[in-house]
Design brief:
Structural class: alpha/beta
Strand order of the largest sheet: 13-10-9-8-7-6-14-15
Shape: globular
Number of helices: 9
Helix content: 10-25%
Mean pLDDT: 82
Strand content: 15-25%
Bound molecules: zinc ion
CATH topology: Metallo-beta-lactamase, Chain A
CATH architecture: 4-Layer Sandwich
Radius of gyration: 19 Å
Order of helices and strands: EEEHEHEEEHEHHEHEEEHEHEHE
Number of domains: 1
CATH class: Alpha Beta
Length: 314
């Protein structure tokens, strides 16, 4: 699960010094209706991404991966299995023979002045890469033998609340062939200044990331969102990208085929046998820092076990 926000229509969130915003949509599910959750990837600690209901009702032992600022806050709130990533750093998650490599992507929520004032919390985007390893091999084996350039079945980018800025250009350079991009749009306006991508920045980002499929999200939930979806749709049509963008309403499901993208191992010349790929290119500068083992059976006891001993530092 990413950025859990289960507040209801009419509820208010606090975003910055005295700045409140009202939710104008209902969540597709209530928190009680969630299926078992293995893991949460959180872009940043803002109430429209991690709210007080979640804080109160979410199982504190569910692992959460985010940036250092958010992880510190989460730890204070009593969350037991929190993992911080620096920019470009990765964490490998293993469950059965499924592997998920989470890499922190750059993101900038506030333009320079607001950023310097520390009005908004730091944000991270994320790249989620899904692969499999042989049944029966240990977590450590999995860490040692994954080559995500060759074996990644699905590469998904989640922007988080970011503006379009120069560092994002590094993302498609390191991660070509992105299958799906979830872009947080909405043109959130704080003190009259945009702090998330509006339609113009959204289309720029869509063209930059060049995902097989782009799905805009986070554009109509709160009163501070000033750039409606129809503006982005117009930009998409103008850019001739209608075939590449999928629009989902709350509660919609999008089905897609995994593993269809042709990811070239040739880019690096040689196959790498480590995830960090330090020897063959610059894709991941920070190496894989931690491995989170999610138990296959998810009864209560095992989840607790996971939270008490989930981390292997590689
Ligand atoms: Zn937001």
């Amino acid at each position: 699960m990413t950025d859990p926000n289960f507040l209801h229509k009419g509820d208010h969130v606090h975003l910055a010094y005295g700045l409140m915003s009202r939710r104008v949509t209902q969540p597709a599910l209530s928190i009680e209706q969630l299926p078992d959750i293995d893991l949460i990837v959180l872009s940043h600690m803002h109430e429209d991404h991690f709210d007080r209901l979640v804080e109160k009702k979410l199982d504190k032992s569910i692992p959460i991966v985010s940036n250092q600022y958010a992880v510190n806050k989460l730890a204070k709130k009593g969350f037991l299995a929190v993992f911080a990533l620096q920019n470009w750093e990765s964490t490998l998650v293993v469950k059965g023979n499924a592997k998920l490599l989470i890499t922190s992507m750059p993101g900038r929520h506030a333009p320079s002045l607001l950023g310097k004032l520390g009005v908004l919390p730091p944000v991270m985007g994320s790249m989620l890469e899904f692969a499999r390893h042989n049944e029966g091999s240990s977590v450590q084996d999995a860490t040692d033998t994954v080559d995500f350039d060759r074996n990644c079945k699905l590469r998904m980018y989640i922007s988080g609340d970011t503006l379009m800025y120069s560092e994002l250009k590094e993302i498609p350079r390191r991660f070509p062939n992105i299958d799906i991009a979830l872009l947080h749009l909405g043109g959130t306006s704080v003190l009259g200044i945009y702090v998330t991508m509006d339609s113009a920045q959204g289309i720029e980002c869509t063209k930059l990331i060049k995902a097989e499929v782009t799905i805009p999200i986070h554009y109509n939930d709160y009163t501070v969102f000033k750039s409606p979806l129809k503006d982005y749709q117009k930009e998409v049509d103008k850019a001739g990208l209608r075939e590449k963008v999928v629009y989902l309403a709350h509660g919609d499901t999008y089905h897609f085929r995994v593993g269809s993208a042709q990811r070239s191992a040739a880019r690096s010349g040689e196959a790498s046998d480590t995830v960090s790929a330090e020897g063959n290119g610059s894709r991941i500068q920070g190496s894989v820092r931690t491995t989170v083992a999610v138990p296959v059976e998810k009864d209560e006891a095992e989840l607790r076990l996971a939270s008490s001993d989930p981390v292997q530092v590689s």
